[in-house]
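[09:14] KT: can someone run the structure on this one? pasting the chain below
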Amino acid sequence: MSDIEQQLGDIARIGTVASVDHAARTCTVETGDIVTGPLPWMAMRAGRMSIWSPPSVGEQVLLICPEGDTEAGIILPGLYSDDNPPPSSSPDEVRIAFDDDAFLAYDMAAHALTAKLPSGGTIDVEADGGVSIKGDVTVDGTIRATGLIKSDDDVWAENISLKHHGHGAPISWPE
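[09:31] RB: done, structure tokens below
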């Protein structure tokens, strides 16, 4: 094999993440009998919108090595493998799966967005401008409110209507 062929063959290598330094945003890659020094990985986005999704140890990656120099390489994470299979095989679904079995999914065919957390998981939403939901809402659990609860129609508890269950004159909404 000529030097040119050898160099071309070394430009792109498949490897496995050996270690990750999150603070430095670098990782080392094992490819063949070589373990690289710390190299940067490519982010999904790093501009006006930024996504933090670091590679993990054992993840299969593509190592791009300018002029075949592994020490000047850039890591392209995200190659599926037997150890790290894709979270879905549906052409209609976009899914983000997490190691603790949580996931976010959107099924374009069913028009369904799903977020699932493992037992004990929590969701926090902060929007001091308000949250608006259009559509029926089903809650399987207790609802707690620290502020006023208003209804433009009626509120029912079992078979009792708050609107039509009289105990005196109607009251007006507090502002």
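[09:33] KT: thanks! The mean pLDDT is 90.
[09:34] RB: yep, looked fine to me
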